[in-house]
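Morning. Coffee machine broken again, so started the prediction first thing and wrote up yesterday's gels while waiting. Chain of 112 residues, entered below exactly as on the submission form.
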Amino acid sequence: TLKKIKDSGFDKHIINYIKNGVIYIGGSCGAHIVTKNIEHLISFDDNYCNLKEFDSLGLFDGIIIPHCGAEEYNPIKREELYNLLVKQNKYNVYKLTNDESLVITDNEIIKC
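Came back before lunch.
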């Protein structure tokens, strides 16, 4: 999805919309594309489009590990990835279950 958004130039529109006050709602993939980087997703998804640049739109200061605790999404692997990313201390890392969300307003991050 990130590759298609960047190839089409729509990434610039998303960034412009958000900077001009449009509310953005993204779940799973939609949440990933506004973060700093998606390289960690190779642990879960095939890189069938041969993506080489993993920097995302960078509108959210950190990365997200969604679907934690959901059996169909291999929760053990997600927890291990979360712990590894926190230990690497390269990004702010947030993990979310399928019942949680992040609300970001004026530099405030609220986990609901």
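Helices lie at 2-8, 10-19, 29-32, 75-88. Going to sketch it on the whiteboard this afternoon.
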